[in-house]
Amino acid sequence: MSDDRFSVAGRIACVTGASSGIGQAMADALAEAGARVVGIARREEALASWATGAGERAVLVGDVGDLDALPDLARRATEPFGAPDIVIPAAGINPRKPADEVTAAEWERTLALNLSHPFLFARAFVPAMKDKGWGRIINIASLQTTRAFINGVAYGASKGGVGQLTRAMAEAWSPHGITANAIAPGFFPTALSAPVFQDDDLVNHHARMTCIGRNGTMEDLIGPMLFLSSPASDYVTGQILAVDGGYTAK
Length: 250
What we know:
There is one protein chain. The protein is an alpha/beta fold. The chain is about 40% helix and about 15% strand. It has nine helices and seven strands. A seven-stranded parallel sheet has the order 3-2-1-4-5-6-7, sandwiched between helices. It starts with 11 loop residues before the first strand and ends in a 7-residue tail after the last strand.
């Protein structure tokens, strides 16, 4: 017997960074589960390929790191299906440079994309969520939300901010039926983590750091994401859910 508490069928979702990696995996899963999904990214060709998948999908080409353009981008994101019930700001960047070498421009770009865009973009849809009395915001945190890694000063600062942003969003909007949570992945093979997965020693090291004994696959993220997107998580807000195989438990 199906349990509608875990269903996202008929919901409207908007996912940034939908052309690759974690954003694409989450956008795929939502569409396949019956949500109507708007995928946003800069790469038009990759988005067009994503749009050929199962379910109801629409694409919007744009740079969510351009904060001045975000209001118009958010407005256009409502055109295909209406205002979204589920917002996942998954687009991100990791410059991977020593602290002494990070430029001001790299610092600002990293914070704009990883921290400012999740707040400003999600906030644009809050009025409509308040009108419905229901909404879901799922941010993308990181192992670096709570710990430091080499060459991660800008990325780590932005993801540390995502943790507090998630709690602050929950405090501000959960009285209106809008939950805000974050998923903090461990090591998963994505474009951002490619330098790690090109080094077998690092891959094996990080696998050993988990309790489970392996690094993540995209499929590992789908269940937690669907849970946080569905009515099953109505009483869960302001939380950072580590999907890391127990990396942070050791």
